[in-house]
């Protein structure tokens, strides 16, 4: 049940972060938004580590996985933010959400055992997410759609490996240290170069959305890390629900269309979540 709760908690938080980022990226750009998210997150996480005096007990293998988690997360988020800037939430989010399935596949390849019925419910859930999250991309040219699709697919592939790495290190490293690599990589590889070259910007309108994105993104990772201690695969797939939640939010906030097939997707999601919960009791 920990994997289910952690995955669902991550989905809610990442959906909130995605929606907030959608608005702010169209004001100050994807790179600036991600830079600020990483700086806010790094400052918050480092303060918590110092105040709690949480030690890092990790061997070189774990450190290597931490580096993969950090760089992969930053690259994945940047690709997704660019996709959100040129395409609708309903186009980019469903494709990017398949990172959960990618992470689950990697986990199984690395030896995580799951009963056949759990694999069946996971497949049901993935299909439901894709159906429920898919909203027609309105007011975008075919070129913009193709561009957004390619960016979102890249985000899914890189993000899946990063999510697996995050889950892998969560079993041996405190959550505060699990949160550190993506934020540190983002600050060193993106925020600092942006600041030095004078391209890091912020507007009064974007500020609250960026803060919400940063806090929600960190909270989502904390939930996922806790859930992954029981099952990386299940926590990763359930975390992919963020796409369906973001698409519903896009309908209410940005007036993006929702069609009948999304109701079928929601039904499959309910079935998949219930089934996974039952198999993990």
Mean pLDDT: 83
- SSE string, helices as H and strands as E: HHHHHHHHHHHH
Which secondary-structure class do the elements indicate? mainly alpha
Taking the alpha carbons of the first and last residues, their distance comes to 6 Å
Shape: globular
* Helical stretch tally: 12
Rg (C-alpha, Å): 18 Å
Q: Report the sheet-strand fraction.
A: under 5%
Task: Please give a quick description of this structure.
The protein has 281 residues and is mostly helical. The protein is built from 12 helices and no strands.
Task: List the topology elements.
Blueprint: H1 2-28, H2 30-52, H3 60-86, H4 89-97, H5 99-109, H6 116-133, H7 142-170, H8 175-196, H9 207-228, H10 232-239, H11 242-254, H12 261-279
Helix pairs in contact: 1-2, 1-3, 1-9, 1-10, 1-11, 2-3, 2-8, 2-9, 3-7, 3-8, 4-6, 4-7, 4-11, 5-7, 5-10, 6-11, 6-12, 7-9, 8-9
